[in-house]
Amino acid sequence: MMTRSQSVAAGLVMLAVLAYGLVRTSILPRLKSDPDSRIVLRLAHWNLHAGQREAYNGMIAEYEKIRPDVKVVQLPVPVRAWPAWQQTQLIGGTAPDIMQIGPNRGATDETIARHFLPLTAHVQRPNPYNAGTPLENHPWRNTFYDGLTSAWVFFPSLQDVYGVPTQLMSLRFYYNAELLHQVTGSTEVPSNLAEFQALHQATRKFQAQLGRHLLTLAGSGDYGAFLTTQIIETHTSDLRLSLDHRHVLVSPQLFNQLAYLEKKWGLTDPDVQAALEVVRAFGEAMPPGFLQLRREDAALAFTQGRAVAMISGSWDYALLENECPFPLLVAPLPILHPGMEPVSEAGAQLNAIYGITRYSEFPAEALDFLQFISSWEPAARFAARTQTLPATVDIPLQGRNLHIFSPIESPRLPGLSLVGGPSSSAWFQTHAHLLFARDGTLGHFLQTSAATHRESVMTDMINERARLLRASQRDDTVLVSLAYKTNEESRFEQFATSHLLREADLLRVNAIMP
Amino acid sequence: MAPLDSLCHRNGLGRYWIVGWTLALSLAGALSAQEEIGWSQAAHLQFNAAHDTFQRAPASRAQRIGLAVTLLNVQPRTTANRERAKTLLKEVIAEGVVDQHTQAAHYLLGRVAYAHETKAEIQTARMHFDATREGDAESPYARLAIAQLILLSLKLDRPISDRIGLAEKYVAGLPAGGIRAAVYWILAQALMDAQASLPQALRFIELALEDGLATSAARADALVAATLLSAELDATVVSNWRDVFLQEFPRDPRAIFLRSNTKQSP
Description:
Largest sheet of chain B: none
Distance between the termini of chain A: 71 Å
Shape of chain A: globular
Order of helices and strands of chain A: HEHEHEHHEEEEHHEHHHHHEHEEHHEHHH
Largest sheet of chain A: 6 strands, mixed
Helix content of chain B: 55-70%
Distance between the termini of chain B: 41 Å
Number of strands of chain B: 0
Oligomer: heterodimer
Structural class of chain A: alpha/beta
Number of helices of chain B: 14
Strand order of the largest sheet of chain A: 2-1-3-11-6-12
Helix content of chain A: 40-55%
Radius of gyration of chain B: 23 Å
Number of helices of chain A: 18
Shape of chain B: elongated
Number of strands of chain A: 12
Largest interface: A-B, 76 and 90 residues
């Protein structure tokens, strides 16, 4: 039996525990976060393109005026160092409050679930910073271009929104207006493939007259791959629809690759061959060996006036607008035959997607900051400063060319891809030189690379099957845990649906693959 | 809705805060708090942390399920962990009590046999899924087990009509809800993949939509499929699924296609 003094001691211990909790959660963080006692939020990203860091500083200054109790510190990290840096921060438990997330940057579903906070519940309610704007009273999720359904924003296997996007990206051709006028006598940009080929011929003639080397299109390996993907997707839209047995219009890549293994389509398909011919035509307009060049090389050739055009994305617009000593023209990719409709870019790629880490001492303030930067007025100012497309909807675009980057809306949906994973991506890098060889032919490319393409797709599918199985095994623990937790019926049903559909996909993969 | 703070990792001294609270709650008699933490960690894919939590939790049938289910996914995955999980689950069943824990144990043993063993043990899986059904038919485990039996039916090497017929017998045992909706959608997909009876596929899709698919991605896909199949089967029919899709998913890239290529309701 406890003595009176023991009871008092036990009571004091309990009080001490509760007092520590109060100090730990409410007082200590504020005292230790900053000498001037403001809450410090750290924001890490890899957006180092021209003007981005300065624009973030501007936005942070605006936010700190509204929230004088908060200080936001920007941590720009070079993209090449990002995966290792991110991993170290997350594993070490020292991750900043807000981190950028995105494809090929070392973040898997499991990384996201373990280290980031789900935002689903918060995106259903209006963003308070949209009060008094055209987006007032709209659920926060509906104020984004994609409704927060895109990859790296919404994670289907986790059934949660983890990211808030702030920018949109699109691929366009940049033209040197002066050079274009000298070559063609006009500043009319090519609107289709035939016009682009005419520009290429005119450039060659002009080059001969000029007596110095001039490129029609400044190219690089990375952007050459983007261009190839876009051309093939554009020219295989109808083929993809013909494979859409499930009547969902955008059959998942998994099923397109399975159909390829079932020989329902292939490299010798007329649509694919037509697309590859277009790819070859653009290869001829780029410098020999462009696959080995980097985007910086292409940008240098273009800004120095050694190329009439350059392919790049909206992310380079501010840089080129500032650096080019000539008027710049921007236009959609002239990859279509005359009379063809472009494919829709409505599922445009998002960029500068931000998540809140579980290591944040101030998740409520981090959420508030994300609401601020994605709200109508700050997002409009950021877009104007950086000359980028905002991911927030209904923002009037400022800047002479910016509207040209807006995603193309078209009833034609994007088609197939020859690259469905790391193995087929490596196949393209290995064989692309055959496709672009000046003395080569499409026939030679197909003859040399068709068999290895099939092998590479098979390898990707084997890896995809293993990934599906691992995800399905992981679901077992999550599902049973949700069933045991109270008040999680709706989340349980969401996970169960996602799990069962994954299992059905696995069944189909196993029925087709050996 | 859980406040964001409640989901954060608490580092360093913060862990003692959790321990302190757990201690206080334990002293007050709420001994299951640790299990609740374990389930929450596992639901957020923090399998190793959840396993540690269940190891510290007082012994109970739920705690053994927690240990077993987290052992299946703690890193690194090992055969020893899987065997230990099976032993724990069999112990729960051997106690002879018919409750939700027994159902969970049977369901998990079925899943281990089907999806975690190096080579799938279909008969063992089927046996455990059948046993899961014998308890409360509305429990989450019974619903999942029936869905698994339906997937096993679709795997059989028989004509698609036979497989669908067998699957439909199991569907009769499923209560209305998200899992039954998912199953209807899977049956429709199986028929469309086989390019078999499209009217039957449309019927399944409509049943899935009526039951309520639990994820927005699946609902969007099913609405598009219902719209296109309706038009394919009878060009004179104008499906109201189109309008539902356009209203619910106006920003979906497929919305422009449907506006341009399908008929609007009068």
